Each structure stands twice: as structure tokens, then as C-alpha cells.
Amino acid sequence: MGEARVHGIEDEESLRRFTAALLDDLQALERVLDDPRLERGVRRLGAEQELFLVGADARPRGVAPAILARASDPRLTPEIARFNLEANLTPRLLEGACLSALHDELREVLALVRAEAAREDAFPVLTGILPTLEPHDLEPRAFSPGARYVAL
User: Which is nearest to 142 in space by CA: 89, 31, 64?
Assistant: First the structure.
């Protein structure tokens, strides 16, 4: 995961610094991609799964911070709202039973989230966009803790 060094863009100078930093990052990426030490000729498969946390009424429940704290699993990361999180599954060589292994890992992570969510009277829904969201669910108080999400 990256570092959470977030500063807002408040004026022209902030925008100039941000643009310069972005261009620096793109140049660094170009150097990495040109580096002969970068793994080549290997195919890997990874996956991330969005998880919304909802109650029995299918409405979002802002319990992700509590679940993340208790689960303490590095594959689980916060998302922008307190009612969703992300499971980052282990990258695997694209061969043999890799899809079965990925499926098994997703089931394992999902079982962990289900167990922790149940302690909060919630359960996970695997979807990119929760259809029961309403405008008031997206107010700043619903954001996950952390400067990254406040800046967004």
C-alpha cells in the first residue's frame, strides 16, 4: 500500500506543486518500467473485491472501521466510506489451479468479514455500487477516517 501524504489544493501554487509531483511520479514510473530488473514473461492474476456493509434493511452501516480494527487482516483495506471496504487478494501465477485458489481466498476473507460484521448487526454485500444508497449516505460524516478521504 502507498503512503497517506495528502494535502489539499488550495491555490495556484498548490496546483503547480501537485502537477509537478504528478509529472515526477510519471517519470519515476517510466524508469521503473524500463528497468531490466522488472519481472518479465510472467503472468500473474490478482483481484480486489469491493464490500459494502449493510444491515437487515439493506441500508449502509458505517461499521468498516470497527471490522478492520478487529479483523487485523492486511488484505482488508478501507474505502472512502465507513460502510465499505476492499479485499485485496494475493497475486498468483496464472497457471494450474490459480482461479480455484483465488476463489478459496475470497471465501476465506469473506467469512472473516461476515463474522466480524455479524458482531455489528451487519453483513457484507459484494458489489461496486450499493443500489440502496441515498444522498444523505454520502455526507462527509460517512467518510472513512484519514486525510486521503477528506481530501477527496
Answer: 64
Within 10 angstroms of residue 32's Cβ, the number of other Cβ atoms is 10
C-alpha gyration radius of the chain: 19
Sign (positive or negative) of CA dihedral 79, 144, 68, 130: negative
Task: Compute the distance between CA of residue 55 and CA of residue 115 in angstroms, rounded to an integer.
Answer: 14
Which of 75, 51, 58 minimizes the C-alpha distance to 127?
A: 51
pTM for the structure as a whole: 0.73
Query: What's 44-151's CATH class?
Result: alpha beta
Q: What are the pLDDT tens digits along the chain (152 aa)?
A: 455 666 667 788 888 888 898 999 999 999 888 888 878 888 999 999 999 999 999 999 999 999 999 999 999 999 888 999 999 999 999 999 999 999 999 999 999 999 999 999 999 999 888 999 898 888 877 777 765 666 65
CA dist 137 and 62 (Å) reads 10
Q: List Cβ neighbours of 9 (8 Å cut-off, separation of 6 or more).
A: 15, 18
Give residue for cell 439493506. Answer: 58
